[in-house]
Write a structure and sequence with these properties.
This protein is mainly alpha-helical. The protein contains 9 helices and no strands.
Length: 211
Amino acid sequence: MATSAPPSNRFERRRAETRRALVRAARQILAETGDTSASIQAIAERADVGFGSFYNHFESKTELFEAAVQDALEEFGQTFDEHLAGIDDPAELVAAGFRLSARMAESHPELMQVLRRRGLGHIHSDNGLTRRALRDVEVGMASGRFTAVDPAVALSALGGTLLSLVELRFARPDMDGDDAAVNLAEMVLRMLGVPPDDAHEVARRPLPDLA
């Protein structure tokens, strides 16, 4: 899960852990079924916290599940930052992001199920993942690596394609996920204006290990 600065005293640490436990429980529910109709009592029991603790942190289930989605998206973005930190080419960043996402369907299944079920509604939200993607798109356009278009339009194309890839990985587990991601990454780079031969090469550069 996404992390933040540790609380400074015992009370704050316990309070923060209770909130994390509730968010973890909500993430699990979203990943397993996507059904947000579970009662607050059921959520609290799954989180192993008292029923009354819920309202110390959230005003409603809607607020909790939104926090769970934001937490998953931030973790996704942090994973990208961790594994792609040494890449400067925006085209390679986009391609590697698609390929890592395909692999994360196996290495981070809960996270990717949340993205699969709730990601579409957050493509243009001000979350950690969107900020990172928009940054890379804007850098690519400013450098001439990508064709200059409205960044929001480019973000729609990237986000929608990425979510389609995640859906494909879960709907067709028998398919070679790496091969599908490479081909899709090449198509996306060409869509962004990268020349065909260049897009073919960039989409196949070595990836960092997710372990």
